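Self-study notes.
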Amino acid sequence: MRIINPCVVALSWQLTDAQGQAIDHCDEPAEFFVGGSDLLASIQHGLQQAEVGAVIKLHLEPRDAFGDYDEQRVFLEPRNLFAAELSAGMVLNTLPRGCSDAARQCDMVFVSDVYPEHVVLEGNHPLAGMALHLTLTVHGVRAPTDAEQQAQSTGQAFLRVAG
């Protein structure tokens, strides 16, 4: 079976930056819905017509991956608005009342730094502004279940931009 919209693909990958430094890898295949919300459009395009066993190498510029870095999406918020256990590296899907409207409009933010008086929140994806090299191996292709078809997703979200 070839990859065409809609289908579910099982993929493993190697992700590096433009200088070849490893960012992420997955040796155990994970399933993604092609034709829905699981994968970046550039990845879906690169997978079209591939079959099981294919190795696909993609070069993704920021516009095709996680976007350009936007300094307007960095926020300083009062520390007292957050739980005591807040720490750098955490991902927040919702922000407490009192945070700026601009920060609250982000689908998710990453806690960059925690200081006694304020917290630095990053609304950019951690890979924003980076050119990436992605090597995908196709391990399986199948028709989506009714639930996957309705959701347009398998529930995996690593290779897409949230929201």
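Second protein, same conventions, sequence then structure:
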Amino acid sequence: MTYFAPMPILNADFALSFARSWVESWNQHDIDAVLSHYADDFELTSPLISSIAGEPSGVLRGKTDVRAYWQQSLARIPELHFDLKEVMTGVDCLTLYYRGHGGTVAEVLWFDGAGKVKQASVCYAVNMARKDEL
């Protein structure tokens, strides 16, 4: 098992700088710039992974697999644009709350001791028109 030294409690300056850089990289569709925020062996979970990457677990590990997934995503949604709404900090994580192509998204990013994302989990808003199903 690999041990990651925890990142110190994230401060507002780091969180805002990271968030702005991350969103700018995505809005420029620059996958290399986006991936520069992540550790080489990071883990990404998203409910869209199964439909786009064909991975039924919804989990991808490592930059190579995630790059392919993100390239497929950008090919499917060439007008992809994120509008950052809120940045929330935790001990070794932050949550980016933004508006994406399909609605509201919350993305939780956990950091290693080097300030790189080691794990990311993406959650998409449930269409509240279907709230009677909840």
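Instructor comment on the second fold: The mean pLDDT is 90.
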